Amino acid sequence: MPRRTAATLATSGEVLRLIRTGEAVTRADLGRVTGLSRPAVQLRVGELLERGLVVERTDAPSTGGRPPVRLEFNAGGGVVLVAALGASRTRVAVCDLAGSELAGRDFAIDVEQGPDVVLPLLMDTWDELLGDRPRSMIRGVGMGVPATVEFAQGRTESARVMASWTGVLIPPIIRERFPVPVLVDNDVNVLAIGEHRGAYPDLDDLMFVKVSTRIGAGIIAGGEILRGALGAAGEIGHIPVLDGAGVLCRCGNTDCVDSVASGTALLRDLREAGKDVKTIADVTALVRAGDAETMAMVRTAGRRIGEVLAGAVNILNPSVVVLGGDVAEAFGPLVSSIREVVYRRSTALATRRLRIEPSRLGSGAGIGGCAVMVLDHVLSPEAVDESMTLSAVRR
Ligand SMILES: [Zn+2]
């Protein structure tokens, strides 16, 4: 986005951005930074005060004289509704405009029941969590779902886990009850956004890899999430490995890393080897018990994931690769195999400063990422200006 200069007239939305980032915190600052006249600054600040997006604070005088009134972004001036849907765990929350959770709840929803069951349940939960707060405070909705999402439309594409969700246009369904902007992205992208802002805000290039039932990645490049043309960037799960045994993947190709190294693949291979494993927790128990065959399979899975990641690292040159998801969280040997292969197979320059780290926020990154995604949108200068125009028309 081009930086505005004094030559272009700063809008109210731009004035809010300057106050939020701390670049200008008094009316005099705003005049200096934007080049706006005093009445013009007054008008824009007045609009932001009226909408509850900004509050005035007066500091105690230090050297005598009248202290300047400071302008602060008002995190309490609204709320966003967020939900991080997962195949195994889902969290629903209400956050303030700074992204802090005001109320939240964990769920064991079977997402396979489909949107007709799950979406009303989510909306009922938001209603309960909102409590007495006026519904006019709701500024937007942000959701992560375990499916590829055509981001601009909020339409699910191939659902990685849940077939009943394929091709669902989610925003209009939510907007019937909550008529605000609704942003939907895939679960791995929201984890990447959450981990980036929450744990690595100073790094511009991060790759978040989720190893769970499925394998996927969310890419932060140049400080922004990389979605690609339609939203399919980061689908590393369907990149084939070199030494696979011809395993047919559900996408129709063979030896995709997802079909040979995901949690689902590990469980399948261990069962074929005669192990009694039903869940990832059962596999964890075998690893803890030092079962040699299980350890070897987990390491092989790690090497295969590493092989695919090495290619991605060569293309993207991230500063940090974050490994998350329940499989990555549970298995030390998997993570060390991934590390070993990535460092060996990526180019020297791409790995010179590369860190490969376990997720710091865990599943908490999901809710944080949903909040950041929707707040970045609804608090952007363009969206703020548009909402002011709309409320002016309604008046
Ligand atoms: Zn595949």
Automatic annotation (TrEMBL):
Top-level taxon in the UniProt lineage: Bacteria
Record protein name field: Sugar kinase of the NBD/HSP70 family, may contain an N-terminal HTH domain
Organism of provenance: Nonomuraea pusilla
InterPro entries: ATPase_NBD, HTH_MarR-typ, ROK, Tscrpt_reg_HTH_AsnC-type_CS, WH-like_DNA-bd_sf, WH_DNA-bd_sf
UniProt lineage: Bacteria, Bacillati, Actinomycetota, Actinomycetes, Streptosporangiales
Family classification: Belongs to the ROK (NagC/XylR) family.
GO molecular function: DNA-binding transcription factor activity; kinase activity
Keyword Kinase: yes
Keywords attached to this entry: Kinase, Transferase
Domain HTH marR-type, first and last residues per copy: 15-59
